[in-house]
Specification:
By secondary structure, this protein is of the alpha+beta class. It folds into 4 domains: 1-58, no CATH class; 65-115 and 242-296 and 348-421, no CATH class; 123-161 and 169-229, no CATH class; 424-587, no CATH class. Helices cover 17% and strands 29% of the residues. The protein is built from 10 helices and 29 strands. Strands 3, 4, 5, 6, 7, 8, 9, 12, 13 and 16 form a 10-stranded antiparallel β-sheet that branches. Helix 4 (124-140) runs antiparallel to helix 9. The longest helix is centred in the middle third of the chain and has 21 residues, at 208-228.
């Protein structure tokens, strides 16, 4: 046979240690270079055999040397908080804005304390930090007189004392430090809402340039304070009865709905395409055309066959040793595709801007033989934006109904890239509430474990001690004939019951009012105090329970600016709980001491 090697290479095993082996070449000619060249006597014979089996007529004989990709990017223009309804409308989505802070921010001012809906008061720590930022900025400009005027006309408020006449415990450590040294940022913003106050103008000193710098620093601080601290947030996307978020986003031509977002990272899989809704008008916004001329690179994956002749295979994954049962045909198909055509896949990277839908409209390439190819020449019936009718990956589906055929799934033409956060910082949970089942009492309890203090820091809830049980005076009667009666047993004050109710939505849980000694017991935190958290679907509380936390977070936008917000996290709890609640209980008096 003409196509044999001119030189043959042999190998021998040399034992170095009992537990090691080494492979060494042993050429018969003494020169290993001849064997490494792998020369053949008649290369034309191989070319003739390729012509005989039709390899030269194959459509994949050429290697792409230039790939032209034409795409269309449809940007996001609006977002919708919460479920669709007449009381909510689309809101504009600025370029570069992140979705997580918009969706997870709580209603009203994003500050600790207070109930949802109306803007709650900012925490003392948040107000002190914002005021200190203004003071530090003016001190760096040398405006000590202006800082003194701010302390005189806008002093930090003194926290209200507790029932015992002492300041709140969480704020007592810093109260004396801030007295006379901190300003109230909300009072500053109120007095500077219109014309600058006279005391501010009188406190300015120095040249005209110095006065302008001080005025500019205050104006910049007011813009920052209004945008990051004293902001009015859109209606909340949190659904209290389902313990999850719901929202939607819109491009110039499509609406993407996220019906069940459980907090955390927002990815393409969070959304479903909603063709039944019309996106809001976007004046002046047009899809962006993207044209790229690229070089295709080979796709690589762990364990793929090597393409070079003398290269050793990767020993981490041995596809040839893969085990498959007779019914596991899919595994065999994957192994065969990896071994036989593993080096036939090419990658053409096209960077997509964040916040929109990227639709590839055309892919053309020129191969090494000079032929030009188009990606969908073999599939002329494929809808626009998709090249093959059966290939689906990273696609956004839509639900539709077609007559008697029932529910079918279609795909949104294009790849949706949401403007999500690349990385975030999370602090300690400022509020932690556990929803657990109590099978003995046939109730669901909401247990407040951590709530925000007046300073904004988290504090552990300490339940009030159990009231003393009144002693039974047996009098002159025998002890076995005297029984004490208790209407119900004691339950900690940070436990709030949810009662089962039947509604049009099935079994729901409704928080009941708690009375203790003629006084109502209210939740100490914000979560249970919200009106939308009074009702809860029974299916949202499994046997293991569920845990809802309010977590402060921070992230950077694409331009480097910081965004701060407080979001909610839903995690599994530690199982069922036992409250010890009993009704109509009798008890005997304790025996007299001997």
């Amino acid at each position: 046979m003409a196509g044999i090697f001119r030189a043959q290479a042999f190998s021998k095993l040399t034992f170095i240690r009992p537990y090691e082996t080494r492979i060494e070449p042993n050429p018969v000619s003494g020169d290993p270079l001849v064997g490494l060249m792998a020369e053949v006597w008649d290369p034309l014979w191989m070319l003739g055999r390729q012509w005989q089996v039709g390899e030269f007529a194959g459509e994949d004989t050429g290697t792409p040397i230039r790939v032209d990709v034409h795409a269309e990017f449809d940007p996001l223009v609006a977002w919708h908080p919460g479920p669709f309804g007449p009381d909510r409308d689309w809101l504009p989505l600025a370029p570069g804005e992140l979705l997580e802070p918009l969706v997870e921010r709580e209603a009203g001012r994003d500050a600790e304390g207070g109930a949802g809906g109306a803007a709650p008061a900012a925490s003392a720590r948040l107000a002190a930090s914002a005021g200190a930022a203004l003071q530090q900025t003016l001190l760096e400009l040398g405006e000590r007189t202006l800082v003194a005027a701010l302390l005189e006309h806008c002093p930090a408020p003194t926290p209200e004392p507790g029932p015992d006449g002492k300041p709140p415990s969480g704020w007592a450590a810093v109260q004396g430090v801030l007295a006379g040294r901190a300003v109230d940022p909300f009072e500053v913003a109120r007095q500077f809402a219109g014309e600058r106050p006279d005391w501010f103008t009188a406190a300015l000193r120095g040249s005209l340039e110095r006065r302008r710098r001080a005025e500019g620093a205050v104006d910049d601080w007011l813009v920052w304070f209004d945008a990051e601290v004293d902001r009015e947030v859109a209606p909340s996307s949190w659904l209290g009865d389902r313990l999850e978020y719901e929202f939607a986003v819109a491009t110039t031509s499509a609406v993407l709905h996220a019906p069940q977002h459980g907090a955390g990272e927002i990815g393409w899989a969070t959304f479903d395409s909603d063709p039944s809704r019309t996106p809001p008008p976007a004046d002046g916004v047009e899809p962006e055309q993207i044209d790229r001329a690229l070089l295709a690179s080979q796709l690589s994956f762990p364990g793929m066959p090597v393409s070079r002749f003398w290269e050793f295979e990767d020993a981490d994954i041995d596809l040839g040793a893969a085990f498959a049962d007779p019914h596991e045909l899919a595994r065999l198909a994957v192994v065969e595709a990896a071994i036989m055509a593993g080096d036939d896949w090419l990658v053409v990277p096209v960077d997509s801007p964040p916040g929109g839908v990227l639709r590839v409209t055309s892919v053309q390439w020129r191969d090494t033989f000079g032929a030009r190819w188009h990606a969908d020449e073999k599939a002329p019936a494929v809808p626009a934006g998709r090249f093959t009718p059966t290939w689906r990956m990273y696609s956004t589906s839509e639900r539709a109904w077609e007559g008697a055929t029932g529910e079918v799934r279609r795909d949104l033409a294009g790849l949706f890239v949401p403007p999500a956060i690349a990385a975030r910082l999370e602090g300690a949970a400022i509020e932690d509430v556990r929803f657990v089942r109590d099978e003995t009492a046939n109730l669901v309890w909401a247990i407040e474990q951590t709530v925000p203090a007046d300073s904004g820091d988290p504090r552990i809830v300490a339940a009030l001690p159990a009231p003393p049980v009144p002693a039974i005076d047996p009098g002159t009667q025998p002890a076995d004939q005297v029984l004490g009666y208790e209407l119900m047993t004691y339950v900690p004050t940070n436990w709030f019951p949810y009662l089962a109710r039947i509604s049009d939505r099935g079994v729901t849980l409704e928080r009941a009012d708690v009375d203790r000694g003629g006084k109502g017991v209210e939740p100490a935190g914000r979560l249970l105090d919200e009106e939308e958290q009074r009702r809860l679907l029974a299916a949202e509380v499994p046997r293991q329970g569920v845990r809802v936390q309010r977590v402060p977070q921070a992230a950077r936008r694409a331009d480097g600016s910081w965004v701060l917000w407080t979001g909610r996290r839903v995690r599994p709890a530690a199982g069922e709980a036992e409250s010890g609640l009993e009704f109509d209980r009798t008890r005997r008096p304790s025996p007299p001491p001997r």
